[in-house]
Task: inverse folding
């Protein structure tokens, strides 16, 4: 069945850079890059390494980069670090030890930035992937979602590459292998999934549960509104354990999950984010950086 064209308003919104994805003074680095989502994902993969991937590549990553790089919120700041370390064209893969040491959000955000620059509608999606644990659990993860004129919105994971043995094309991730946050929330609320299987299971103790999924719904709704914060930025109505979840919270995230599932009603997603203080990202957020502890951060104006 043919896919209906993306409404002009939606296409324009998701091809416009956000304050987070804008390359700013480094836009010249994007000159002459391809528009193909797979080719752009390979470029990202050649510039970045996940901070947990050192052993996969047999490389000891510099501790200061593991600690600091993933705290970089904005693409222009990421590109500054990339260019300072190696001023070659972005199409030239860096040696692993010289790459930007980020997390899944950083891969997806740069991929999204490159796609938007190429005129491809794109956004990042927070949710849970089961392909890092052979389907046994759903780990906290972020991917890109981009518009394909023939197939509609597709999920792409620019972090995975030939170094991951996966039974699918990472530029077309099956939606039963990556559950966007709203879909995960809905499955849990319907009794179809165990909330203890969603989150950061490798932490000790694991960070899992409905409270964690709710936080991802909040992050995903923000990203659908082109507010692509760090994953450990916190704000609004939330909890730090399932025991702290209230009926008000469950009701709020039931509403938010409807607009942050596989099908995104654009106008409603914009309206809910704009009008609800429990969901809307404020000018100042809390930041729970892994090694630095809690701090308050003033974001660049995004609206």
Result:
């Amino acid at each position: 069945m043919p896919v209906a064209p993306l409404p002009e308003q939606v296409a324009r919104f998701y091809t416009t850079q956000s304050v987070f994805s804008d390359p700013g003074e480094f836009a010249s680095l994007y000159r002459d890059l391809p528009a193909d989502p797979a080719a752009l994902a390979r470029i990202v993969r050649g510039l970045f390494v996940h901070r947990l991937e050192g052993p996969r590549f047999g490389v000891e990553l510099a501790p200061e980069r593991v600690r600091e790089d993933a705290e970089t919120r904005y693409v222009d700041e990421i590109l500054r670090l990339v260019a300072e370390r190696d001023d070659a064209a972005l199409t030239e893969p860096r040696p692993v030890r010289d790459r930007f040491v980020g997390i899944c959000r950083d891969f997806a955000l740069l991929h999204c930035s490159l796609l938007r620059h190429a005129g491809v509608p794109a956004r990042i999606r927070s949710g849970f992937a089961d392909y890092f644990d052979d389907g046994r659990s759903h780990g906290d993860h972020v991917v890109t979602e981009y518009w394909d004129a023939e197939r509609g919105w597709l999920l792409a994971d620019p972090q995975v590459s030939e170094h991951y043995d996966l039974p699918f094309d990472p530029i077309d991730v099956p939606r039963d292998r990556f559950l966007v946050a709203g879909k995960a929330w809905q499955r849990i609320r319907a009794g179809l999934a165990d909330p203890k299987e969603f989150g950061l299971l490798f932490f000790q103790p694991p960070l899992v549960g409905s409270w964690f999924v709710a936080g991802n719904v909040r992050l995903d709704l923000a990203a659908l509104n082109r507010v692509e914060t760090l994953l450990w930025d916190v704000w609004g109505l939330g909890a730090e354990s399932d025991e702290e979840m209230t009926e008000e919270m469950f009701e709020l995230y039931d509403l938010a999950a409807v607009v942050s599932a596989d099908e995104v009603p654009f106008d409603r997603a914009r309206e809910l984010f704009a009008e609800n203080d429990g969901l809307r990202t404020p000018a100042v957020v809390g930041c729970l950086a892994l090694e630095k502890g809690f701090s308050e951060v003033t974001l660049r104006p995004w609206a």
Observations:
- The CA atoms of residues 16 and 116 lie 6 Å apart.
- The radius of gyration is 18 Å.
- Residues 210-224 form the longest helix (15 residues).
- The mean pLDDT is 96.
